[in-house]
Specification:
By secondary structure, the protein is α+β, with helices and mostly antiparallel strands. Helices cover 31% and strands 27% of the residues. The strands form 9 sheets. Strands 13, 14, 15, 20, 23, 24, 31, 34 and 35 form a 9-stranded mixed sheet that branches. Helix 5 packs across helix 6 and helix 13 packs across helix 14. The model has no long low-confidence stretch (mean pLDDT 88).
């Protein structure tokens, strides 16, 4: 085996993980360079190349695989730098993106307006046609009118086209013909057809997914192909994959056609890493995955050793933002990362985030012009960070600058500097606890019966009091925690999903129709597998799911199909029982007498082209290491505490540190709070006892 590289470009840092032929991870971090992403990536590459004693060129020559994760698509949407996109829909349905699913929390509250649609109404065009719910042609496609509309799009210089017609999932003919007309009249202009990108019921969600995907195509086509070219020019000759929002990775060519799958590609990898680390430590299958980066705090779940997926992922606030519409790993985010800005609201209350200092100018302590107090500044003031050892000593922090901005905030609040800095972390903790509660307790998972896997450069500051507050006794914090998502890529597979809509319920189950939909799904999955150039002989796993609900319920639950086809009544009964169990696990209720409605059917193929790093034998050793130094730290209360500081590089398997203490790794710092402890496991993870 040669080297294997994974890289995750976040809003603040670019994380890189190198897996060497001996199965050892090496982490490199650099500040993200928003103007030119490759610069930050190559800076991180220099760090890992140095760690294995090679030049960048030599390392690339010996690297078999590089997996790239990017926030480019998400950032483009947030900063409104997507392509100028037209939206085509059936006559009479021009407002589908305007109405969304209600649009705002208080529809009769006229003190604020409805949010803007993803594509402005003035860029929405009606097409004279109509397909019925059963696939019948109610009104034929008016090709003359359609040509006139597309000619108008050409004249107005639209850069992409999204097409979402009513009931195209029942009969795709009209959408397919519009695609042909776009290719004829606007050659080279990318477009997305809804029946291909999101063949599901729920009109708005299908339209939203189509609009988002089309708007990203020019940007992501240029970005991904340009990245591929840059890597080849730098000497990389191995396979290139890109991480996706479904917790896997795909080849560049696949994502050029479906760039919507790059949204949340970085955060989606954290649960993959969490599942792997929990398995390595033999900690069970229910895992809460916390990734504290520079900009956000992301929370995901692993339930019964399986990733949790959702079609309810929003860009922006729920209901008022824009729903992705495609299946994604369920990850919730709050603006409470290391770069989150602390401020005082008009009522005099301390707030943290959601605004972030980012990488430019960054927290005040970076010395790059930042003037706002952040979580990182607070941690530095409290003594948790060695200013000379931040990012392994590659970035020296300005403690005086951090003290100055915290002092300004403290004067506003009428508190001293230590109290204010500590309050910033407490507020950030509360935001993080709330985010964890929303994805665990609200979805039927008890934190007291789960293990937390924590990652991100800022996770070590406060994960122990967070776990303690949740009643979660154990936290796994890997030595590579600062690059959790990038580590997840090292454990990931090539993953692709296909969907069909076929509504039926268990009082008159349409086995023939459902099995036909499953046949079509499997054909899509096999076509994807056969399109791969390098992984055709790899281990392949195929799963099938129903998106099901009790009659009159609004939302569906993903329910595993016990068999790949439902050939008998007994097979249907088994599916019904599986749904009852799933509903009871999530909501603590099962309704035996209620019919079960199946709305959509989904297949997922997972292809593992490479073996994960090997798991070491566990160790029960308990040793008391010698601290490298002491530092004055503040943990609340009335006074600072002389706190022992341990360097991770000097710790051995089985070493156990009692709090209060600080453990310093090159790219993360672990604060062991009073009455808690941390132990280094055989797998190279810190096992934190938070009771």
């Amino acid at each position: 085996m040669g080297y294997r590289i994974s890289v995750d470009t976040g809003g603040t840092f670019t994380d890189m993980v190198l897996l060497d032929p001996d199965g050892k991870f090496h982490v490199g971090k650099s500040l993200t360079t928003p103007e030119r992403i490759s610069e930050g990536m190559f800076s991180a590459l220099d760090v890992v190349a140095e760690a294995v004693g090679k030049s960048t060129k030599e390392l690339f020559a010996e690297t078999d695989l590089l997996i790239y994760g990017t926030t480019r698509a998400t950032n483009a949407i947030v900063t409104k730098q997507t392509a100028r996109t037209a939206f085509l829909t059936t006559t009479g349905f021009r407002d589908i993106l305007v109405f969304k699913e209600g649009g705002k929390h208080g529809p009769h509250d006229y003190s604020y307006d409805y949010p803007q649609p993803y594509i402005p109404r003035r860029r929405t065009f009606e097409i004279n046609e109509r397909i019925g719910a059963s696939g019948e042609v109610v009104r034929p496609l008016d090709e003359t009118q359609a040509r006139e509309v597309i000619e108008t799009l050409k004249e107005r210089g639209f850069e992409a086209v999204a097409v979402s017609l009513l009931w195209s999932i029942a009969n795709e003919a009209h959408e397919a013909r519009l695609g042909e007309l776009i290719e004829e009249i606007m050659p080279g202009v990318p477009y997305t057809l809804s029946h291909r990108i999101a063949p599901i019921l729920r009109e708005y969600r299908r339209a939203s997914a189509t609009a988002i995907d089309a708007s990203l195509k020019p940007l992501m086509q240029a970005h991904l192909t340009g990245m591929q070219t840059d890597l080849r020019d730098a000497g990389f000759t191995g396979d290139l994959l890109v991480s996706t929002s479904v917790g896997g990775c795909q080849e560049v060519e696949s994502l050029v056609e479906r760039p919507i799958n790059t949204l949340k590609s970085g955060p989606a990898m954290a649960p993959v890493a969490g599942r792997a680390y929990s398995a390595l430590e033999r900690m069970g299958g229910d895992v809460i995955v916390c990734d504290a980066g520079g900009t956000t705090f992301d929370v995901g779940l692993v339930r019964d050793n399986q990733l949790v997926y959702s079609r309810d992922s929003w860009l922006g606030p729920q209901w008022t933002g824009d729903i992705i519409g495609a299946s994604t790993v369920d990850v919730r985010s709050v603006g409470a990362g290391g770069g989150s800005i602390a401020w005082v609201d008009p009522g005099g209350l301390l707030q943290v985030g959601p605004q972030s200092a980012g990488s430019v100018p960054g927290p005040a302590c970076y010395g790059a012009g930042g003037t706002n107090p952040t979580v990182t500044d607070a941690a530095l003031v409290l003594g948790y960070i060695d200013p000379e050892y931040f990012n392994g000593g590659r970035l020296t922090l300005d403690r005086d600058a951090a003290v100055n901005v915290i002092t300004t905030l403290a004067k506003t609040m009428g508190k001293d500097v230590d109290e204010t800095a500590h309050a910033i972390l407490v507020i950030a903790n509360e935001l993080m606890i709330k985010a964890i509660g929303e994805i665990t307790v609200n979805d039927g998972l008890n934190p007291r019966e789960s293990v937390i896997v924590a990652g991100g450069g800022a996770a070590g500051f406060n994960i122990m009091p967070i776990a303690h507050e949740l009643g979660c006794a154990t936290v796994i914090l890997p030595q590579t925690a600062s690059a959790l998502s990038a580590c997840g890529m090292q454990y990931s597979s090539i993953v692709f999903e296909a969907t069909r809509s076929r509504f039926t319920d268990t009082n008159g189950f349409d086995r023939d129709g459902v099995n036909k939909a499953l046949d079509e799904i499997e054909a899509d999955l096999m076509q994807f597998r056969d399109s791969l150039g390098t992984a055709i002989d790899a281990t392949v796993t195929i799963e099938f799911f129903a998106e099901a609900r009790y009659r009159a319920q609004v939302w569906e639950l993903d329910t595993n199909l016990p068999k790949p086809r439902l050939k008998t009544d007994a097979d249907v009964d088994e599916l019904i029982e599986t749904f009852h169990q799933t509903h009871e696990r999530v909501y603590a209720v099962r309704d035996e007498g209620s019919p079960v409605e199946c709305v959509n059917w989904k297949g997922r193929i997972s292809i593992r082209p490479f073996d994960p790093p090997p798991a070491p034998d566990p160790s029960d050793a308990r040793n008391a290491p010698t601290p490298n130094a002491t530092r004055s730290c503040f943990f609340g209360g009335n006074a600072r505490v002389d706190t022992p500081v341990f360097r991770g590089e000097a710790m051995k398997i089985g070493d156990e540190v009692k709090g209060p203490a600080i453990i310093e790794e090159p790219t993360t710092t672990i604060v062991v709070y009073p009455d808690m402890s941390a132990r280094l496991s055989a797998a190279g993870d810190y096992i934190l006892d938070c009771r």
